[in-house]
Design brief:
Blueprint lengths: L6 E6 L10 E3 L22 E5 L8 E6 L2 E11 L2 E12 L7 E9 L4 E14 L9 E5 L5 E4 L1 H4 L6 E5 L8 E6 L2 E8 L6 E8 L3 E8 L9 E4 L3 E8 L2 H12 L18 H5 L2 E4 L12 H6 L5 E5 L20 H12 L3 E7 L2 E3 L3 H5 L14 E5 L9 E4 L4 H16 L5 E5 L23 H18 L6 E5 L11 E3 L13 E3 L2 H6 L5 E2 L5 H5 L4 H12 L9 H5 L4 H17 L1 H4 L3 E2 L4 E2 L5 E7 L6 E7 L1 E7 L5 E7 L5 E7 L1 H4 L6 E6 L5 E6 L2 E8 L3 E8 L1
Parallel strand pairs: 2-22, 18-19, 19-20, 20-24, 24-25, 25-26, 26-28
Antiparallel strand pairs: 1-3, 1-8, 4-5, 5-6, 6-7, 7-16, 7-17, 8-15, 9-10, 9-12, 10-27, 11-14, 12-13, 13-17, 14-15, 21-23, 22-23, 29-33, 30-35, 31-32, 33-34, 34-39, 35-38, 36-39, 37-38
Helix pairs in contact: 7-8, 11-13
Length: 708
């Protein structure tokens, strides 16, 4: 692998020789075990060709068209038995005053049998700490809202020595950051048009970390196939850590189309009620509806703006069953809506954004398989749940074209007009940028590019238009953070962030997405289950909700049973109320604020080891948290906010050091307690720093405002 600059994977163009079923199990990348669905083994090994710059029948040619550019060319490469039919080039640019080394690549494929499926360039090999201290290595990746991989060369990346990651929630932004003791390497791309792409990682104790950008051509079935990357892959050195890398990315990201409407505070397309709601309870139609409205709970929640995340509503009433044909509403759903409206609870209702149940009338009437996403072999992609007892159905992955937009739009319109819901949750919708579509009915080209995601965004805009004809403040959210859809969604359900890979000494959760986008989008919900509440004196429940608060997640996915019936429900209720009221009091920071670097605590505090439960499962991660979680924010009015959360059962005295970097002027600092208002906090100048001190009550949040 030494000296590898690029690689290409070619696949034989399918012909009539293949006799295949009409459908195939969903797999985003057929030859990869990508965890997006079962591996698709139709492509026999004989159908795949792999070539690299280090293993060719021809040598590379170097040219230098100007003093800032190098171009490497490989011409006349053999493809199978076809001689000299493939040319490839890689361009490397480093202009004056540009901190980034920029890469582009392209090819001319004249083969009549094979098409390029992936073009990987550049391949950055041998990333290794100069000091040899692997334990000091860190790799920040935008897995969901952020993961920090500790000692990745020895430990692997989220438990794997090799990863092949799609540009979706598993890689929600377009950069990674490797660093060791403040010396960093920024790795990413600048693609404002949101083309499909992949990221490849490999770790080895001898050769270090390999990072590679995998490009997906949008003309895989064209012969000849000529293509080049339409965006820059970039690398640069930087000083600092993951937060510094996030700020580098933010400078670019806020200039892109998905950020064009501006920050949340002034964003007109999202209504104020949605921005400022205090909790989205998770409570399905089939649950004990009276529990949601017990006098004890209603009294405790008085003064808060509340909503319900409604599942199992309408016909079928089990996730993707009968989707999207959920009307007319059965009596159970009608009663559910009536109770919610009676108690002034807003409702965001679940509906699948991409799954079309093949047993629905709409699917049969519209010949749904004709309007499904198709793979390289022309098969319609399906999720097959037919063998599951609770959910025995099969759904096609609908392409967001005219037909699916109309069919799903009919349901969404009724959600606003008939059911009087306040918002729609489009499940799976944020994964759309991943799919490679080969349905000629919809794609002008075939394979990669951005036609799918642009069609999906157009669809969401049309759904919003239809729903808002009946409710001008109807909102839309989707599953899992991905930056590409910030501009068409009012918020993003980020619950999946809370049960993904975490392991003591290997991976930690970090607010990478918030450091870039917190003041431009709404992330909400924390994924937890009964075991978080009932085990270990509720420490997992408290720590998850505490972390969500300090990271600016809008509350969501709490359940009445957590607060009223489960073991330790008294603890769950009291700590939830503190979190809600702290969030409500600090919205200038936790809704509209810009996330700053985590403040420095200068006194020694204990650490807490505990079992971090994975959603509703019986499995957990062993993790270690500091006794006091913290964050710092800048409000639009220029004031700073420090948010603390003590996860222990004893009060913790905290001293926070602030410098001129945060304050600009340390001599004229005024502080006040936002929550609780009775908190006594002091600020004193010590050795040229401002030290903010307070005692954080047990299992409680604290919010302090600093005026400069």
């Amino acid at each position: 692998m030494s000296g590898l600059l690029w690689s290409a994977q070619l696949r034989k163009i399918p012909g009539k020789r293949l006799k295949l079923p009409a459908t195939a199990a969903l797999s985003n990348d057929p030859e990869q075990n990508d965890k997006g669905g079962r591996q698709n083994d139709i492509g026999l090994s004989a159908d795949l060709l792999k070539m690299t710059s280090a293993n060719l029948n021809v040598g590379g040619i170097l040219s230098k068209p100007d003093k800032n550019t190098l171009i490497f060319k490989w011409n006349g490469i053999d493809v199978g038995t076809e001689k000299a039919v493939f040319d490839l080039w890689v361009k490397i640019s480093l202009a004056p005053n540009d901190k980034f080394v920029r890469f582009r690549a392209g090819f001319n494929n004249r083969s009549t049998e094979y098409t390029v499926f992936y073009l990987t360039a550049p391949v950055i090999q041998g990333i290794y700490p100069e000091n040899g201290e692997l334990k000091e290595d860190r790799l920040a990746i935008p897995c969901f809202t952020g993961r920090l991989c500790l000692n990745p060369i020895e430990n692997g990346i989220l438990g794997k020595k090799e990863r092949f990651q799609q540009n979706r929630s598993g890689h929600s932004m377009q950069f990674d950051a490797y660093y060791n003791r403040q010396n960093g390497l920024y790795l990413g791309c600048f693609d404002g048009e949101q083309n499909v792409k992949r990221y490849r990682y490999k770790t080895d104790k001898e050769t270090g970390l390999t990072w590679a950008m995998v490009h997906v051509p949008d003309n895989m079935k064209k012969v000849p196939q000529i293509w080049e990357t339409p965006y820059d892959t970039v690398i640069r050195c930087f000083q600092g850590d993951w937060y510094d890398a996030a700020r580098i990315y933010r400078q670019w990201a806020l200039k892109q189309q998905w950020s064009a409407e501006g920050p949340l505070l002034t964003r007109k397309s999202t209504p104020k009620w949605f921005k400022e709601i205090d909790e989205w309870f998770l409570w399905g139609v089939q649950k004990n509806r009276s529990l949601m409205y017990t006098p004890e709970l209603l009294k405790a929640m008085k003064g808060l703006n509340l909503g319900i995340f409604a599942t199992y509503w309408g016909k079928g009433s089990y996730f993707h069953n009968r989707t999207p044909d959920r009307f007319p509403l059965p009596p159970s759903t009608v009663e559910y809506i009536k109770l919610a409206k009676q108690h002034r609870f807003r409702i965001v209702a679940y509906i699948q954004g991409i799954c079309w149940d093949i047993e629905t009338e709409s699917f049969k009437q519209e010949a749904g398989f004709e309007h499904a996403v198709k793979n390289f072999y022309g098969q319609s992609l399906v999720w097959d749940f037919s063998k599951k007892k609770k959910n025995p159905n099969i759904t096609a992955i609908a392409y967001p074209g005219k037909v699916w937009t109309r069919v799903l739009g009919d349901t969404v319109e009724k959600m606003a007009r008939v059911a009087k819901f306040d918002a729609a949750y489009l499940d799976s919708d944020n994964h759309g940028g991943t799919y490679l579509n080969f349905n000629p009915l919809y794609n002008k080209n075939s394979g990669g590019g951005n036609e799918y995601i642009k069609a999906n965004q157009k669809m969401v805009r049309e759904l919003r238009k239809r729903a808002r004809e009946y409710n001008p403040e109807f909102c839309f959210v989707a599953e899992s953070f991905w930056e590409g859809n910030i501009g068409v969604l009012d918020g993003i359900l980020a619950c999946n962030n809370w049960h993904r890979y975490l392991k003591k000494g290997e991976a930690e959760a970090i607010p990478l997405a918030q450091a870039v986008y917190h003041d431009y989008t709404i992330l909400f919900s924390t994924w937890l289950g009964k075991r978080d509440v009932e085990n270990d004196d509720s420490i997992s429940f408290i720590a998850k909700f505490g972390q969500a608060l300090v990271w600016g997640f809008k509350p969501g996915y709490n359940q009445p049973a957590n607060l009223l019936t489960f073991k330790n429900h008294g603890t769950a209720l009291s700590t939830s109320l503190k979190r809600y009221h702290a969030y409500a009091a600090a919205k200038k920071f936790l809704v509209y604020g810009e996330m700053l670097r985590e403040p420095k605590i200068i006194n020694k505090l204990p650490e807490v080891d505990f079992r971090y439960w994975r959603a509703w499962s019986k499995t957990w991660f062993n993790v270690t948290y500091p006794a006091v979680l913290r964050s710092m924010w800048k409000a639009v009015d220029g004031s700073l906010g420090i948010v603390l959360y003590n996860i222990t059962k004893e009060p913790q005295h905290v001293k926070i050091q602030l410098t001129t970097k945060e304050l600009a002027n340390v001599s004229n600092v005024k502080i006040k307690s936002i929550y609780p208002k009775t908190l006594v906090a002091t600020a004193a100048i010590q050795s040229g720093y401002v030290v903010v001190s307070c005692s954080v009550p047990a299992r409680s949040p604290v919010v302090i405002q600093i005026n400069r």
